[in-house]
């Protein structure tokens, strides 16, 4: 009894003193890329977040991604210089305006010599740039991973650790978001890097990459630190056909529900100007948001999977499997045009200068082969299904069904063993050791399953199955389960 009381007290203390939830907000990259990244546009986006009800729903971070700084320009001591045309009054003035609207303000930097879009990076200037972030009253720093000479894992960790310490030494509480795109950052995220989140896979800019992020994150549950730091599978895409990248409506809802199950940061990457009613209903659903922000802050995990074994791959910006979808298409088109031009030149000069014609023929062949390699290594989706579960406070759990199959619809079942597995995550969690020492016999006959989007409740006995029918290509359904226990269970 004393042991159980001590465990409960330790749990309560942890929840009180380490209670930083996953960040919620908006990031400019998927929406704007490097177009129209200006103070005027950011203020308009802030007003839009307020107008649509996102801020009151918890989406309080407005984060500017790459392209806010001047091209090839740094200050005399290595300072970052805001683009004078886009930010004529500087960053601090914008920061104060956003704070006055009830928002928190995030900015972007990179551990290399340049950012991913070619602006000045922070390598060798970490202390200077960290002080700037504090002086500008920044609340969140996304720290990217392009153009660093540190290609080894240890070198990358040292780069991130340097900026992390520089931020800490400023004395300002700035969320540090590591953007390294690979699963191997997870074991070091919360402790060595003191990060609030760490990217675990390539940019989630298409459904195939979202599938890879899910399959990667299912293996990283133990590295998420409740109330401290979280695995980050990247931004929410939305379903707008006018955005740079987007999903189908069903996929956008499935992504949001899975991100909530994974206790991931909820950062909108969708275009705020033309969000559909569907997307608004998806991202403003208070029940799904509550699952992500549940005060236990425990990452969910699959309790059933028909998917094949998955091994996460190392990612770097120019690798075929992690290259952004629009960059991938640009490369394919450019390679095709180059190959056609080289073949035409080889054909025209074949009789006059055979050696030169052979060179052009070789270049055309190489371009075509590289284009084929790009296609071959692009991420693919397996035809499979999963059931995820996540422990929630108040003797509850969340349950999610997902059908990844590109073509086949399917009826999925969570039987009594499956339902008990969802409950057992409480007992097996390293965060809640022995807090819920339940056996299947201790379950009462009442389990309430609430469908978070349909809005209906199903009452199940301990021997019933929860069944759902899902369409192909990423449809998902998410429930909360409220269990009743016998009086001897706690």
Give me the secondary-structure topology.
Elements: H1 2-17, E1 24-27, H2 29-32, H3 39-52, E2 61-63, E3 69-74, E4 80-82, H4 90-100, E5 104-110, H5 126-135, E6 140-144, H6 153-170, E7 175-178, E8 197-199, H7 207-217, E9 230-232, H8 249-261, E10 266-268, H9 277-283, H10 286-292, E11 301-305, H11 325-348, H12 354-376, E12 385-392, E13 396-403, E14 410-414, H13 416-428, E15 443-451, E16 457-460, E17 466-470, E18 475-485
Parallel strand pairs: 1-2, 1-10, 2-5, 5-6, 6-7, 7-8, 8-9
Antiparallel strand pairs: 3-4, 11-12, 12-13, 13-18, 14-17, 15-16, 15-18
Helix pairs in contact: 3-4, 5-6, 8-9, 8-10, 11-12
Instruction: Output the CATH homologous superfamily of the largest domain.
Output: Aldolase class I
Number of helices: 13
CATH fold-level topology of the largest domain: TIM Barrel
Number of strands: 18
Please state the CA-atom Rg, rounded to the nearest Å. Answer: 25 Å
Averaged pLDDT, please?
89
State the shape: globular
Structural class designation: alpha/beta
Distance between the termini: 11 Å
Given as residue ranges, the uncertain stretches (5+ residues, pLDDT < 50) are 13-17, 430-438
Overall domain count: 3
How is the biggest beta sheet arranged?
A: 8 strands, parallel
CATH class of the largest domain: Alpha Beta
Strand order in the sheet with the most strands:
9-8-7-6-5-2-1-10
InterPro entries: Aldolase_TIM, GH, Glyco_hydro_27
EC number: 3.2.1.22
Keywords: Disulfide bond, Glycosidase, Hydrolase, Membrane, Signal, Transmembrane, Transmembrane helix
Family: Belongs to the glycosyl hydrolase 27 family.
């Amino acid at each position: 009894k004393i042991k159980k009381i001590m465990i409960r007290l330790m749990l309560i203390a942890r929840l009180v003193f380490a209670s930083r939830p996953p960040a919620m907000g908006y990031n400019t990259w998927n929406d704007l890329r490097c177009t129209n990244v200006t103070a005027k546009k950011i203020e308009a986006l802030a007003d839009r977040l307020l107008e649509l009800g996102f801020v009151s729903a918890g989406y309080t971070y407005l984060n500017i991604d790459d392209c806010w700084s001047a091209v090839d320009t740094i200050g005399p001591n290595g300072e970052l210089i805001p683009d004078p045309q886009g930010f004529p009054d500087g960053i601090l003035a914008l920061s104060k305006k956003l704070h006055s609207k009830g928002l928190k303000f995030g900015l972007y930097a990179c551990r290399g010599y340049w950012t991913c879009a070619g602006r000045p990076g922070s390598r060798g200037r970490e202390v200077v740039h960290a002080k700037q972030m504090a002086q500008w009253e920044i609340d969140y720093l996304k720290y990217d991973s392009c153009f660093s000479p540190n290609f080894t894992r240890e070198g990358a960790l040292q780069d991130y650790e340097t900026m992390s310490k520089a931020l800490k030494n400023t004395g300002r509480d700035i969320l540090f978001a590591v953007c390294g795109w690979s699963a191997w950052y997870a074991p070091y995220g919360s402790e060595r890097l003191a990060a609030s989140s760490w990217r675990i896979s390539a940019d989630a800019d298409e459904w195939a990459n979202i599938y890879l992020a899910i399959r990667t994150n299912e293996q990283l549950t133990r590295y998420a630190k409740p109330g401290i730091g979280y695995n980050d599978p990247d931004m929410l895409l939305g379903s707008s056909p006018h955005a740079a990248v987007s999903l189908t409506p069903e996929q956008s809802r499935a992504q949001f529900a899975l991100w909530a199950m994974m206790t991931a940061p909820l950062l909108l990457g969708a275009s705020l100007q033309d969000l559909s009613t569907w997307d608004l209903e998806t991202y403003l659903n208070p029940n799904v948001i509550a699952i992500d922000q549940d005060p236990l802050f425990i990452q969910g995990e699959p309790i059933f999977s028909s998917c094949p074994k998955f091994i996460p791959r190392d990612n770097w910006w120019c690798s075929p499997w992690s290259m952004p979808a629009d960059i991938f298409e640009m490369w394919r088109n450019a390679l095709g045009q180059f190959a056609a031009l080289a073949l035409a030149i080889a054909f025209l000069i074949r009789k006059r200068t055979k050696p030169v014609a052979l060179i052009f023929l070789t270049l055309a062949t190489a371009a075509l082969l590289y284009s084929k390699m790009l296609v071959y290594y692009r991420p693919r989706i397996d035809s499979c299904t999963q059931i995820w579960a996540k422990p929630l406070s108040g003797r509850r759990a969340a349950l999610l069904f997902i059908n990844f199959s590109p073509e086949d619809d399917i009826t999925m079942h969570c039987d009594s063993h499956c339902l008990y597995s969802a409950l057992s995550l409480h007992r097996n969690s390293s965060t809640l050791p022995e807090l819920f020492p339940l056996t299947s016999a201790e379950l009462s006959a009442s389990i309430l399953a609430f469908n978070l989007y349909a809005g209906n409740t199903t009452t199940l006995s301990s021997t019933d199955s929860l069944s759902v029918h899902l369409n192909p290509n990423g449809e998902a359904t998410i429930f909360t389960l409220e269990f009743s226990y016998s009086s001897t269970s706690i």
